[in-house]
């Protein structure tokens, strides 16, 4: 375990402490650092409305991810686990969006969402529905529109994790259950799901982390707009650190991100990690 | 089992390869430290610039290196956002190159204000730069009376329009604000969206909004607002945003323009969906590169009823403050070499023409460029808003554009919100 | 009789559902491909973004390879990925093995310690890493990039491998010990092969994230000849306008190696625990 520990220490732990350290200062990246203690954090929580929006957006994103992304990828995995012709093709097919560079995903979906020439609105026109929506330009809807674009790309990953996990569910156990008279749904919930417990831990942990850190798709599609409707903690941190030169303040945002993740994931993982 | 053995073998090979490669350190060594100094008389300097210039920079660098035995220039390329990030990271870690590309205004001032750029004021006066360069260009690169960069381009913005569409509806180029509104109304009646704009990241829509501000505030107030000498919480800003909202509601901008990509505004013009687009003189180059007929595109200065000033900004090469004299000489020699008229002609596509010299040649076939430059000289110019304002204030302006368009914010509140952003910035 | 009919209907339903989903799924991909084969003229002439042009502009692809130096970027990316994935997985497997099989104290605590790495937003690590690397002269080296990637990948790798190692029943261990295996042999000959689905998944995932990683690569590498693919693709984005056909063609080409890795390793999703029990 030693090699892992050494590399890890140098690459991760050092920046973590560095960031914690910086977040206690007011710094523009170059000049003098002025120590402000916890002021950065206090103003973040008290008066920064954009920060509040960003946290809420991230929370919405987490909820959506767990309920939508995970369920859909689990469904896909289950369907694609059955034996049928062309299974490999379909698996690869649904996984494909995962491998495309995020910037391309953003560009394509912006075209799709284009109110005039975009696919969705044109489709509605084709079927005669009078429905015009500006999707990502509409502050109410934009975050969900961005989520769908991200969903398209994100399904592949949990799907193959679930697929791998499903391999471990021995068909013998399932057969035994059928003999006992259990129907498909019952089998699924009482046998498959518990056997996938470890996979669930992995998928949920990964999804939550990804939901907190989500950056590329949002930045590419909306840049955090309109009017901060899709601002995420990561995009907000980016603008604070790199564009406004409030390095201390921005790093505080990053630390908040990490703390939230810790608070959510650690209890969950340690609970499931206890040896059964 | 066999697979396992193959894997372990592969891993062993990889490990060895890693150590060997690690030792050699990649193919071209470390190009990322600042001011690598001189080895036995050879000055090595590093240059960071945009990747859109790559096709020109690389051959010119080679030419320069072969012509100058005692200087070696190494160039690194970044995309528009990447270079801003890379420079920021580099400035925090002390690894800025010897020279780098930057924009004027608040983007460049960060480096000047923090003492990272070489003060060229003396060098400039010694070498007669005041005569050599276009005065506006020099001014846009000067902060606190210190010249902090070598101007590499001077850009001026006007309203590009489709001549044929205007002709079709018997429209003349507007010379007053009222006429401008009439033109928009006529276009809209005939199914054409008057103005092509895209709000992603705010700066394209801002080009229109700042013209409205120029119209309602007048030249002096506008300039004073940009230097924070006058508060933004005033009537002019409110009226400008009310008019902006009016335009949004009347459909003078494309649907859902707020999150459209500004890189695509030309597309709408080319398709005939829109008739006008606020762009800089580089747009001629874009039109030609995309195979469109430049005869169909004309340009006019926005009729602000206040002298019709045009928005402008500059780009420059900044030099590292820690450059030794030898390095500085080398850098300047290269920059002059690169920005010579011959190279601009040869690699026209990759330069933002014309060069910011007082007597620069106009690029061939780009019919609108001389018009814009002349009009800029006659009417005068003001600094473009997203360079005049620091990024955090500009972002509040962009947010207001979005909020007002979506009906989330009342135009009368915009001024106050921008002003409070200015105040927090000032108290930093 | 009834059983068979039911089975066939089930299959039909399955196929129908899949095809509908596939159609929905394919729209963006279709756009990508359709754009990649359009020339600039076609793009600007107003044909719908979602239809194929009359002539296929292969020039976009050739341009991406020659002018865009896509092959160089791919070569660089390949080198880094092929280094990082095997070594990374090996290191992570060792750690996961230790966490689940060996008697290490505070197992859960250590696991959580490693997990924190996954949560760190990469942007915050940029400056410290840049500082350290420039001092150690590791900028612009394959080794430097690879080292950082391994570091960031450790958390995820341990998470997955530990999960799978845990689900391998301890009976196998005992059977092995009875047969006289040492711990190392247990690791190499039993655990690793059994965890093949997990490792295969990890290979695919790891390769993909290393291949597509943009942020760290853009900071650590600025020598043009050493850039990786995502950084290289960004060079296709212009300052005042983007040649979308060119960009999409580049993206499509860049996707190929990952697809190959995926195709090679996804077979392992079909193998189950059967292998382990037999041996």
List strands and helices in order, with pairings:
The complex is a heterotrimer of chains A (276), B (428) and C (279).
Chain A: H1 2-22, E1 25-26, E2 34-35, H2 39-47, H3 49-81, H4 87-95, H5 102-113, H6 119-126, H7 142-154, H8 156-167, H9 171-179, H10 184-195, H11 197-213, H12 216-221, H13 233-243, H14 247-273
Antiparallel strand pairs in A: 1-2
Chain B: H1 2-24, E1 38-39, E2 42-50, H2 54-67, E3 71-78, H3 80-93, E4 99-103, H4 105-113, H5 121-126, H6 129-132, H7 135-140, E5 142-143, E6 146-147, E7 150-162, H8 163-168, H9 177-189, E8 193-195, H10 203-226, H11 235-249, H12 265-271, E9 274-280, H13 283-289, E10 297-300, E11 310-319, H14 325-338, H15 341-346, H16 368-379, E12 381-383, H17 385-388, H18 391-405, H19 411-426
Helix pairs in contact in B: 10-11, 11-19, 18-19
Chain C: H1 2-36, H2 40-44, H3 58-66, H4 70-100, H5 107-119, H6 122-136, H7 142-167, H8 170-178, H9 183-194, H10 196-211, H11 215-220, H12 229-234, H13 244-265, H14 274-278
Helix pairs in contact in C: 1-13, 3-13, 4-7, 4-10, 5-7, 7-10, 10-13
Main β-sheet description of chain A? 2 strands, antiparallel
CA(first)-CA(last) distance of chain B: 64 Å
CATH architecture of chain A: Orthogonal Bundle
Note the gap between the termini of chain A: 23 Å
Largest interface, C-beta closer than 8 angstroms, per-chain residues: A-C, 83 and 88 residues
Q: For this structure, what is the CATH class of chain A?
A: Mainly Alpha
Q: Beta fraction of the residues of chain A? A: under 5%
Q: Any idea how many domains of chain A?
A: 1
Low-confidence blocks of residues of chain A = none
What profile does the largest beta sheet of chain B have?
A: 10 strands, mixed
CATH homologous group name of chain A: MetI-like
| DSSP E strands of chain B, number | 12
**Count of the domains of chain B:** 2
In the CATH scheme, the class of the largest domain in chain B would be: Alpha Beta
Structural class of chain A: mainly alpha
**Widest β-sheet, arrangement of strands of chain A:** 1-2
